[in-house]
Amino acid sequence: MKVLLLNGSPRGEGSNTLRLSRAFIKGLGADVQLREVVVRNEKINPCTGCFSCWHKTPGVCIWKDDMPAILEEYIAADLVIWSFPLYYFSMPSGIKALMDRLLPLNLPGIHRREDGGNSHPARYDLSQKKMVLISTCGFAARENNFEALKAQFDILYGRDDGYTSFFMPEGELMRVPELQERAQEYLGHMEQAGREYRTGGVAPATRAALNELLIPEERFLEGANR
Ligand SMILES: Cc1cc2nc3c(=O)[nH]c(=O)nc-3n(C[C@H](O)[C@H](O)[C@H](O)COP(=O)(O)O)c2cc1C
After folding, report:
1. Which of 71, 147, 149, 183 is the most exposed place for a label (fewest CB within 10 A)?
2. 160 has a pLDDT exceeding 90
């Protein structure tokens, strides 16, 4: 199984989110062929909106940077894991630049979607590709926090079973030395989620464990404000 990990944390290897993603990948099994993109180390110019990749040079961007190689990995992957922290209720700019540069994967036509609205058809058959979204955030609350990101991925990859998401509040607690035992417990659930994902789907009990906060919100707020 070819897995492409898109690590969009500006912290690179020091990312809280990456710890969750690595645990999930461990759970996927030993046969995973992992290709890892650390977005902050890659040269990914912003899309200029010139549409050359649609009209002048179909499928090929004007920029000669690191993105064409990433696109090849993206096309080849069985599973793409989007791993990044929540920034302003959405994604950090580096990974957004990468997402915008996926434009050559689409064709310029505009179709009606079965679930409403419009979309551009795919240039390649990527229908078998699986998507996972893993994101941590700083607040203790999911509500009024992760909704915009979830809505974006729902539209992009499909509301029902188009992708699998893991949203973890209190992400900064992952690096608190006194909480490492609890952090390890949480990472154990992420690893279990990886195992279950590979064999049909994340079990409700694992979901429930992952939906538990690392520490209760009241204690979190008290500590954060101290
Ligand atoms: C510019 C910026 C914007 C952020 N926006 C949010 C936000 O909207 N909601 C939230 O709960 N946390 C927010 N955070 C906190 C991060 O999501 C949190 O620290 C996360 O765990 C960092 O993960 P990482 O180590 O993988 O980069 C923000 C942090 C930064 C630096």
Report:
1. 147
2. no
Centre of ligand 1 to C-alpha 16, Å, is 10
**Residue 78: pLDDT above 90?**
yes
Structural domains for the chain: 2-225 (3.40.50.360)
Å from CA of 137 to ligand 1 middle: 5
What tens digit of pLDDT does each residue of 81-97 get? 999 999 999 999 999 99
pLDDT for 161: 86
Q: Which residues line ligand 1 (CB under 6 A)?
A: 9, 11, 15-17, 85-89, 136-139, 145, 171-172
> Residue 156 and residue 130: Cα distance in Å, rounded?
12
Nearest C-alpha to atom 8 of ligand 1 is from which residue? 88
Ligand 1 atom nearest the C-alpha of 90 is: 8
